[in-house]
Amino acid sequence: MTEINVIVDGKQETGAVQDRTLLVHWLRDSLDKRGPKIGCDTGNCGACTVRWDGQLVKSCMVLAVQADGGTVETAASLSEEDGSLNRLQQCFKDHHALQCGYCTSGMLMTATDFLCSGEPVTEEATRRALKGNVCRCTGYHNIVRAIRAAAEETP
Predict the structure, then answer these.
(1) What angle do CA 133, 135, 141 make, to 5 degrees?
(2) Which residues is 22 bridged to in the sheet?
(3) Contact indicator for 108, 89 with CB cutoff of 8 Å
(4) Burial of 143 (0-12, 13-18, 19+ CB in 10 A)
(5) What is the pLDDT along the chain (155 residues), one digit of tens a residue?
(6) Helices 87-94 and 141-153, interaxial angle, to 10°?
(7) Which DSSP symbol is given to 27?
(8) What domains does the chain contain, in order, with CATH numbers?
């Protein structure tokens, strides 16, 4: 077992993990963070997407010990301080950009990263940004619409 210290969603977290424990499993099983989903364990679906030290990663492809000393942000970090939805989350709700919700946290993390990139939020660029995330329910149309609406409505 290895002792790790990670700032997760703004809070210092410490835990003993086996060296083979994936970050997604530590977040979910030890910290009860339910945003990152376990979808494929191969990095293909994007349901486990988080920000690790400012970079988007699929947490099923990162060992928890690799995050030691770093910062991890899950979809829980996106809400406003009072717990209300942020602009992007509200747009996902308003534009029906979710159905079963399994991919939603990964989509939100990817969309947040994309919106912060400074790249123009065209339909083509938005779809390109989402290419590492799989949604089996929505057909992506409403997800793209929600992201573009968030970009237009953000001051």
Answers:
(1) 100
(2) 63
(3) yes
(4) buried
(5) 999 999 999 999 999 999 999 999 999 999 999 999 999 889 999 999 999 999 999 999 999 999 999 999 999 999 999 999 999 999 999 999 988 989 999 999 999 999 999 999 999 999 999 999 999 887 799 999 999 999 997 55
(6) 140
(7) I
(8) 2-76 (3.10.20.30), 87-153 (1.10.150.120)
